Amino acid sequence: MLQDELRQERNQKEKALRDKELALGDKYTMEQNLSSLKLELELKDQKLSSLAQELEELTFSGNTEEEVANLKKKKHALEAKLSDQEEELDELAGQVSQGAG
């Protein structure tokens, strides 16, 4: 009877050790999964940040293209005005020459 109790206690102790080892194995697996998920999340955050920056740059460059187009229009208008003023100056210079001559 005492031997049966000792055997039963030993079996329970062995079962408890096996359960502990299984639990430790599960814990290790879960920690590895958690670590992998954290790394994956970090990589996705970096990708998101990179894409946000790229979007911002594309948006900014879009505005810049619009500004360049506006500046080209203004330049063209100023060049036309300059050409008109040069013609007017030539006419005035011709009138002055004729008046002096």
Automatic annotation (TrEMBL):
Domain of life: Eukaryota
Coiled coil: 3-95
Keywords: Coiled coil
Protein name: Unconventional myosin-XVIIIa-like
Lineage: Eukaryota, Metazoa, Ecdysozoa, Arthropoda, Hexapoda
